[in-house]
Amino acid sequence: MPKIIDNARSYLLHELRDETAEEDVHRIDACVGYFNLRGWSKFTKPLDQVTPKDGQPRLRLLIGMLDSPDRELQRHLNGQDMLDNSERNVLYRNLREQLSRQLTYGTPTRADETTLLDLQQRIRDGQVVIRAHLAYPMHAKLYITHRRKTRYPHLGFVGSSNLTLAGLEGQGELNVDVSDEDATGKLVGWFEERWDDDRNLDITDELLELIDASWAHPKHPYHVYLKMVYHLSTPIREGVETHGIPPDLERLLLPHQKTASQFAAARMAHRGGAIVGDVTGLGKTLIAIAAARLRQNSRGGKTLVVCPRNLVNMWEHHCEQYGVSGKVLTFRGTVNRLSDLYGWYGTVIVDESHNLRHRTRQDYKAIKSFIGDHQSKVMLLTATPYNREFSDVANQLALFVEETAPLGIRPALLIENVGTEELTKRLQRRKLFDCSHDTLAAFRLSEHPSDWRRLMDRYLIRRTRRYIEQAHARDVIAVTPANKSRVVVLPSTGRVVTVNGRPAEWKVRRARREKRFDAPTAANSVQALPKEPERLRRSFETIEASPGRRVVIGPGPEGEPPVELEPGDTVENRKGLLVGGELRLIPTRRCKGIEYTPGPDAEVASKETLNDVDTLHLPRYNLARYWSETRPEPPGGYTDDDREQTETWANDPTNRGGRNLAGFSRTLLYKRLSSSGPAFIISLERHLLRNRIRLHALREGLPIPHGDSSTSLDIPPEDTDSLHDAWDDTEISGSGTEMLDLPNPVDAYQHIRNIKNPAIKWLSPQLFQRELEEHLQSDNQRIVGILDRIGEWNQAADTKLDALCRLVTEIHPDEKVLVFSEFADTTEYVARSLRERGVAAVRSVSGTHRDPGAEATAFSPKSNNAEVPPSEQTRVLVATDVLSEGQNLQDAHIVVNYDLPWAVVKLVQRAGRVDRIGQESPHVRVVTMLPPGGVEEVLDLRKRIRDRLAENARVFGGGERFFGDAAEAAILTEVVYEGEDPTLEEEGEVDVTSRAYDIWTDAEAEHPEHTAAALALPNVVYATQTKPGQNRGTGAVTHVQDREGINAFAYTESNSGIASVITPSEVLDLVACHPDTPKSPPLADHHQLVETAKTGPLRQPAAAVEGQTDPLRTRAVARLREHLAAAVQPGFQTVLGAGEADTRRVLNDLHRWPLKRTAVDIVLPGLKELTVSDFATKLIRMRNDDELCVNPAEHIGPPQIICSMGFNPR
Q: Which CA distances in Å does 52 have to 4, 30, 48, 145?
């Protein structure tokens, strides 16, 4: 009787083991549908008990199922029983891919490694031979043992078990043994016939190659490093492959701009948006224009550009010149003008997006709503996305990233510190009850820089000047004529510079060691946080020709003639870029502090003045403090309008809550005090006049004018001075100087009443306590005392102005000079005084100027592609920071900080106006005006101011970071005194994708054989290297990737067994190696370290999207509900037969799952173009065809191990 083997009461594996143990078996033949390489471990015991005949294998294995069930069914329905040669080739490739994929499933173990090596060795020894059956698909399962006995020479097992873990013992099967001699003889004949079929293919050698290539054999460290690099560089490579640069832009863009625009276009397509965070001077505008053109060419639609007011003309010119259709609006203009735009705006560019750090602003809300309505892809341009808090970055991302949309990455360090339960509770306290941990809302709760770096890796494109020099620049020779005319730039390849006939020895001067500070600063944006080691800065020696020093540049390799320098000419070994077919220098930055002698400004910054400012009450900025509910109206009463405004103000909880603007006002007084005497004096006079206006109203029982501060605070300031006006009430247009011409507060009060400014509220004096009048009077007395002590300002005695005048008339008499100040009053004073001293072609510009861009063009026409007659050009331009963002002013190469800005980032932005790629001068000079005590005196003054603010003000500053701590003091000292090439803007990392892309392309050019080897590596491979000096112990880096292509990394230490997430940037630094890096012995616990990382911090977060809808799905749901509401009665049918039940199924899917990418392109125009009924019918059809929502099984899955790198210092 045959024996039933069902892997329940008896197991096929045990039967085979018992058969080979008890009988004299010399070979096993097996024919199966599927073969699992890791199932081999179960088969080794029976095989070891086989004693083969000489020259014969222990096992012959025939694999028959090589095609997918779908293709098999399709062929059957088409009547194709046999396979042709092309189909056999397909089946062979399928088998190879199937076996290869098996080696990438799951997590490697030492047992699996032993199994694979055992199989490989048996194949090499000839113990195992494997063939693929290619005549036709075959799903037979047969195992035959061959005995030496002649009476019962064979035993067969026929049934359903494949040679897999499940088939041998892991799952229910049905097999029977066959011992009858006649029956087994027929089975043997059947097997031999198929084994010998000439259409079969021996895959033994291929299997050896697969195991050789798999993780079972440790790889070379450099190849695994390149594999990580390749995956990290995928977004740029895909962008380059799928987005071709238009010819008119191809000639214009630099290499780093081309890849950035293609990268940005791909990022916007896949992530919804991108942040271009290149440091100043690297051409973010052209990157954005090119990316917009790429999207316009491929997706259609228009482009909306939102930018500061002073950049509108530049953007309009660029859009027109390079064929980008759309509209350019100011931040303020978006509030009222977005509703007037027609058509689909598929791309939105926000220039200087750090202006949208606060999501309560009206322009922020308008732009975010517009992006959601149009499902626009977004590009944010900013060199400084991070100013003070991580919410600055989060709010900018939230323009296109939904707060509760799954991102696929989690704030790992936050979770590591507080745990998942606590994070859930914190989200629930924010009324986010169904919010998963892989969302922007969850990241908002993290204060860990590494979490934010991982998040920014998804969206950020950032390159620094040093990175551009290293990745894209070439060595050049720069010759500066003695008369300082245009610099000649020559390729250095093949040229030798000689001095008196001997080759020059270029010396590199090394400046002091430069430390990286751990504390984030405004210049140290979130993507660019701490931790590089100290580095040495360098500058190149300049060789000057003289009558006794003959300097010659030798001939070039292409027959270029030699160049002999004239006396006074200088030559430098520099870095340059090819711009429009012409070599241009990357300028070096030289900084200098100019100290001026003591003057009248000493009294302005005296201790007595600081004390007086410190003790001002500033009651106009904290009126709620003086609120009184008991004082009655005057006998005469008020007009209905005055009474209505009073009641409105009194009932406004914002005003009743006592919003304290006094801190802002005091801060601005301190800032102006450190800018210039006239700016400070004008501010005091404004305060004095406005206080007197209120005193007049209080004493006469008249309504008190009050500006709508809550509204003005919501308006983005174009420079610091307009910010001051916004907080200093809104009853006066412009800078307010016209009010100072009025003879007395009575006339001024009447003037305000007459202009009827709608922003002014008129409040009953009976609302306030008498203490308001007392504090206004007290402040006036102190202000008068300060003004008397300073006295009348005389510009002729201004020593700071003297130093600036010498700079522009004696040191640089014929060169353009750009002077910056934080305040419009200072710029107007400086420009006016320079003209009075005889300096020609001097202009000033501030945020109140109607067209700052026109002034920029008059100062720097060449860089702005404009033709301005020399007689109409500006030589000295004195500007507020309204020109420190976005403008190209590199016709000049001298920047003067007349006052040092309080926000660190302004230093970068100011120098960046002239320190740009394409600057024709070899050096950019940054000059800072300093008091007699130098930078130490500036720091001392600011420390005293900072201390006073910390003691007194509840509201500190204007959302800026101020100089004062050790890191900021060091930055300030460096900018003023370092001498050459300060790297303030280099505080930060290049985005990891750009780094990886350039590492990969360099390797392709220099080591093509190694990149080919890296590309051939399957997943799950690993390597081990020794890295002396690493600050981590023995351990391993694990690299995984989810189905959305998101890369994640963790480091697991051997000693502790603790795995922690690390950023891709850290990984590139940690695993970096070269072709000569030796292989180290693998760690004994390497696979366990990988398992710990994968099941710990790298486990796939739940993609909890149920109940969380993006704006497009929200609108689609609303339209479908409108369709349901239109039904006359339940159970209605549409004209196409799609009824209520079908519509509700679509609604359910939209509520639960995200749209497929292809569906987005159909749903969005459908919302605009289809009727409600047609739209519902369209979505029902898409659902029925599985074209609407992401299949949950496809959307959620475990991460795939890409590779790992061990570190074994022994």
A: 28, 15, 10, 11
